[in-house]
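sry for the spam today, last one i promise. struct tokens for design, 474 residues
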């Protein structure tokens, strides 16, 4: 039986449309007879404040001690802010992805290593979003043992998080809210029955595996060898195998304009790399013999070939760009990449040709260039896209790790031994920053190596820097 105060809050939630009954499709695709949309609270500041007080009381009742609060982005940010302001607790904001410019921070606000942080969430189903935030803040040195949620849908989050070492405190439970609404005559017995049945059947929602695998600084990460053993896609397995065997996470970008020069670079850096990335369309003398020669060098030094074509058209067109023209890319490039912007059709088109040849595709999730227009929610949508095309997508190109799924490879371009930039918007970070702070698996280095006086020695230097940065995380 809930308190009179909570019953009246439930009633208001129902009246303003936060809690709805009917037929809904949840983010997971599941059909549900109930929906909770706490984003609406921002339009009712008095209610937001009342719930912030309930969050505070819940934590006080639990005897929880903490130094700062952090809301799960974005829906819980107003609630966390309200708790922070109303009760004078410092707050930090978790970014969903690192900024591509400026300080490149993943957390905004002042905090110190070892401080205790409470995670505030608006509504939980499996607890995946809370867990993602815990992983990120823990990697930044904060200590998290507890989280608080406004509305617990009672679909598995409490147990899932407990198994991961986090105690979840709930201000409201969905069944309690529903019973209160029934007693107040707001909903009928049939609705109560339907929701109760739904919750009974769906009470063990799991955190998707790609979100449950830890892979951050200060937590043990999986080795390339372990990751190879988890991969279903043969190409991902092979790349992780090469990385383990050759002790390298270096991909050289050989951006030169003649085939002979490119083959010379491939020979020179071959022993130090796992992937060679090229732009076939800048080769002035590209000819049908070149791919065969390149494949021979790749075989000799055991690396894979990545044509950085950045496909971005409709499915039908990219299919032709991949298989026809003078480059016939599908015949020789183990890896290609594409912009997910056009939607699923682009992957369907590329897949038609690539899958039967065992090829793989990287999705471009973020770019290294200054002022790029990639919107904030794009990496998240890209990760979702990848999840649905695991038979062809082998990973991402980006500036920060999108998802901790160990079976996707994260490539990061814009790397030099010193942080710097070029005159056309390229921005460079160090191998250590990319690997240890942004979750890169493979660093892509172009001019840092190809323009060096001694490309072979420089490639060895980058290889060491990259592999040392990875080894320190193990
Ligand atoms: P550089 O010489 O190290 O700046 O070369 C970087 C390479 O990575 C180059 O081939 C680019 O086409 C590629 N690249 C990049 O620099 N930034 C990006 O965001 C993407 C690709 Br996607």
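last one done:
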């Amino acid at each position: 039986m809930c308190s009179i105060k909570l019953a009246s809050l439930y009633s208001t939630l129902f009246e303003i449309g936060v809690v709805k009954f009917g037929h809904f499709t949840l983010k997971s695709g599941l059909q549900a007879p109930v929906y909770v949309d706490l984003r609406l609270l921002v339009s009712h500041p008095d209610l937001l404040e009342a719930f912030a007080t309930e969050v505070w009381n819940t934590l006080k009742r639990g005897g929880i001690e903490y130094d700062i609060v952090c809301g799960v982005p974005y829906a819980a940010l107003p609630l966390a802010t309200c708790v922070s302001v109303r009760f004078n607790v410092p707050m930090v904001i978790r970014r969903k992805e690192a900024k591509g410019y400026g300080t490149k921070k993943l957390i905004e606000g002042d905090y110190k290593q070892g401080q205790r942080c409470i995670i505030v969430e608006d509504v939980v189903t499996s607890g995946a979003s809370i867990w993602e935030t815990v992983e990120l803040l823990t990697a930044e040195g904060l200590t998290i043992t507890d989280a608080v949620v406004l509305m617990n849908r009672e679909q598995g989050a409490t147990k899932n998080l407990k198994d991961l070492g986090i105690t979840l405190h709930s201000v409201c439970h969905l069944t309690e809210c529903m019973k209160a609404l029934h007693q107040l005559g707001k909903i009928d017995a049939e609705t109560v029955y339907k929701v109760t049945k739904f919750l009974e059947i769906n009470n063990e929602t799991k955190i998707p595996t790609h979100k449950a695998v830890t892979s951050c600084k200060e937590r043990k990460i999986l080795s390339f060898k372990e990751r190879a053993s988890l991969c279903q896609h043969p190409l991902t397995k092979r790349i992780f195998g090469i990385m383990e065997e050759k002790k390298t996470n270096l991909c050289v970008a050989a951006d030169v304009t003649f085939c002979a020069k490119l083959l010379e670079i491939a020979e020179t850096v071959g022993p130090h790399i796992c992937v060679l990335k090229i732009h076939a369309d800048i080769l002035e003398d590209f000819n049908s013999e070149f791919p065969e020669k390149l494949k021979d060098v790749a075989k000799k030094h055991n690396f894979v070939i990545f044509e950085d074509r950045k496909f971005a058209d409709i499915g039908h067109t990219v299919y032709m760009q991949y298989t026809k023209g003078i480059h016939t890319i599908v015949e020789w490039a183990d890896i290609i990449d594409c912009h997910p912007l056009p939607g699923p059709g682009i992957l369907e088109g590329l897949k038609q040709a690539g899958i039967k040849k065992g090829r793989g595709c990287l999705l471009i999730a973020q770019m290294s260039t200054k002022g790029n227009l990639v919107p904030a929610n794009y990496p998240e949508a890209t990760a979702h896209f990848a999840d649905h095309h695991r038979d062809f997508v082998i990973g991402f190109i980006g500036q920060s790790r999108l998802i901790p799924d160990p079976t996707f490879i994260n490539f990061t371009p814009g790397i030099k031994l010193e942080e710097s930039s070029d005159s056309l918007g390229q921005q460079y970070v160090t191998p250590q920053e990319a690997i240890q702070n942004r979750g890169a698996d493979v660093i892509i280095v172009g001019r840092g190596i190809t323009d060096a006086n001694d490309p072979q020695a420089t490639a060895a230097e980058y290889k060491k820097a990259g592999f040392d940065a990875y080894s320190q995380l193990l």
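The chain has two domains: 4-201, 216-471. ok im logging off now
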